[in-house]
Every structure is written in structure tokens, then in C-alpha cells.
Specification:
CATH class: Mainly Beta
Distance between the termini: 58 Å
Radius of gyration: 18 Å
Strand content: 25-35%
Largest sheet: 5 strands, antiparallel
Number of strands: 5
Shape: elongated
Strand order of the largest sheet: 4-3-2-1-5
Helix content: 25-40%
């Protein structure tokens, strides 16, 4: 039984804790100007912070408020390549 728990811990619990720690670190290091994506799939740029609320600019002069916890991650950098 102990072996099964050990396997379960290393395959499920530990990776979840690492992912949660990584996400919390990303949320703690957010700053104005960061491009983010929310859990609802909304892309925006961080415009302001208020307590647990983040103000995102989703279009020029269009701002929405979302909870800090709803930020899923930073937008991946887009690289423009040439097709040939």
C-alpha cells in the first residue's frame, strides 16, 4: 500500500504542486504591459492592478476587469518567419 501511495505521489501530486507553484510565481510577477491570456480565452494587456483584480486592455480604449486567479498565463511570443 505504501508503494502505491509513493507512486501516486510522484506521478500525480508532486507535478500538480510544481505547476501550482509555477502559476503562483507568474501571477506574483505580473506587471503593467504584460500580455496575458485568461482561463476564458481572452487575450489582453495588463493595464492596472487593484487588490485581487487585474484590469486588461483587450482593444484600444476597451478595458475589462478580471480576477487575478483567472489569468492562465503569459501570451507566447509570436515569431514571424518567412515562407519560402
Amino acid at each position: 500500500m505504501l508503494i502505491i501511495f509513493g507512486i501516486f505521489y510522484f506521478l500525480v501530486i508532486r507535478p500538480q504542486q510544481a505547476q501550482r507553484r509555477k502559476t503562483q510565481e507568474m501571477l506574483d510577477n505580473l506587471k503593467t504591459g504584460d500580455k496575458v491570456i485568461t482561463t476564458g480565452g481572452i487575450y489582453g494587456t495588463v493595464a492596472d492592478f487593484r487588490d485581487s483584480v487585474v484590469v486588461l486592455e483587450v482593444a484600444p480604449e476597451v478595458k475589462i476587469e478580471v480576477t487575478r486567479a483567472s489569468i492562465q498565463g503569459l501570451q507566447p511570443a509570436v515569431t514571424k518567419g518567412t515562407s519560402g
